[in-house]
Design goal:
Layout: H1 7-15, H2 24-28, H3 32-55, E1 65-67, H4 73-83, H5 104-110, H6 112-115, E2 123-127, H7 129-132, H8 135-140, H9 150-172, H10 174-178, E3 182-185, H11 203-206, E4 209-211, E5 219-220, E6 235-237, E7 245-247, H12 248-261, E8 264-267, H13 270-276, E9 279-281, E10 292-293, H14 310-317, H15 320-339, H16 347-367, E11 371-375, E12 382-388, E13 399-404, H17 412-431
Amino acid sequence: MKNRLTPVSILEEFFHMQLKKKTIEFFQEISSDKWVDFSKFYLFRMKEGFKKEHFLSSNSEGHLRLYFEPKLYDQYTSIIEKQYTPTPLLGERPHPPHDRKISSGEISKMLNPLKKHLLFSNSIYIRDNFYYCFDMVADSVNSQDWRNNPTHVYLVERSINSVINWLPILCEIRTLIDTGSIVFMPYYFTPSFPYSGYSPSVKKSWNRIFYEKGSETTESEEIYDSYGNRKPAYYFKSSGIGEPYFSEEVIKMTWLNSRILNLSPVYPTKNMLNYASKLRFTEDLAPRVNIADFTSINILPFGNEQEISIRDLIKIRNNEEVFKEVAKSIIALKNMIEKENLSATSDETRRLYCKGYLQEQLSILEQKSIIKFVRNPITGISLSFMVGSMLLTSNPLISLFAGTASSAIPSVADKLLMNKKQKAIGHIQMLL
C-alpha cells in the first residue's frame, strides 16, 4: 500500500506509535506541550507534501475525485441536519462529541452522508476537519509561553480534547484513509482561500468564466437585506420547495476551485449543479460535465433496510478492478432511475427496480458462457455465437456477436471481465 500523507500517518510519524484502538490510551497520556508541538509539525508536513502528492502528480489520471467545497459547508450542514446524524467529517462543526465515548456504530452513522458517494468515486476530498480543530494552536500559539495567555490555554485544552475524541473515528475509517478513498484536504489549499466569494488570487481564471445562457433551471430573483439594500452577489432561487437561495458568485468560485484542482465538485443541491453545468472557460468548446450533487444520490435505495457498513465499503473497494465495475453500475442505476422517472417513488419501488435490473444483467452475463456452434457443411467453417451484452452499454439490450471458429472458447480476458462484472453485481445486490 502506498505511503500517503494523512492525519493518521502524521500522528504515527510524530509520536512513533501506531494508531489502533488499543493504543488510544497512549495518546491520551501525552502532555499538552507535546500536542502543541504536534500541531505545528502537522501544519508543516501538510504544507510541505500535500499539494505535491495530490495536485502535482499524474497518479490520479482517469480517476473520479469528488470535491466538497469548504465555502459550501453551511449548505452541506443544513442538509445533514435534516437527513443524517451530525458528523465532524463533513460540515461546519469539526469537533466530535466530547461528553461520551464514541461507539463504532455511531462512527458508521457519521460516515452515512458520504457512503453512497464512496460507491462510485475513487476518492472524496473533504475539508480536513481534524486539523480544523487545532488550526489556531498550530498557527498562533507560542510553544514556549502559551500557558501565560488564558486565551491560548483555552485553545490548547479545547484542541487536545477534540484531537483525542477524533482518534476513534480515525481508527474506524483508517482503511478508507490509508487507501486514499477519503482525503482530508487542508482548507488553505483551496485556490480562492481565504475569500468566501470572488478572490483576487484567481482573478485571471475568474475573468475567463463564461455562463452558457439558455433554458433556465432556476428562478432568478434579487435579494435585499432588512435595510432594503441589494445583496452584493446575484442570487438564484432554487425551484425545489424548501431549497435555499444560492449565490451565483459562490457557485462560480466552487466551479473554479475544482477546475484548478482538477477535482469534480459535489454541489449541495441539484439546482446548484444545474447552474454550474452551464459554466465553462471562454476557450472551452462546451461546458464540462458535472457529475454529482449531494442529495440526488439518495434515490439509490442502498442501506435502507440495513445501513451500509464501513466493512461493506472496504470490502467493495478492496479489489480495484471489481470496484471499477461497481462504480459503473452505480452510476448506470442512478441514471436509469432518473430516466424512468422513478425518483419520487417509494424506496421499495426503486429497490425492486434495481434488483430486477441487476438480475437481468446477471442472467445476460451467464448466457455469455453458452456458445452455440453452427457448422457450415460446404466450407467446413465453424461459427460461434455468443448471446449477451456488456453490463453498461448505452443500450442495455441483448446483443448478438458473431465470430469465426478460430476459438469457440471465451478468451481469458473475457472470462476475467465477466467474473469482475458478476462480482460487482453481487456486491450491489448485497446492499439492496
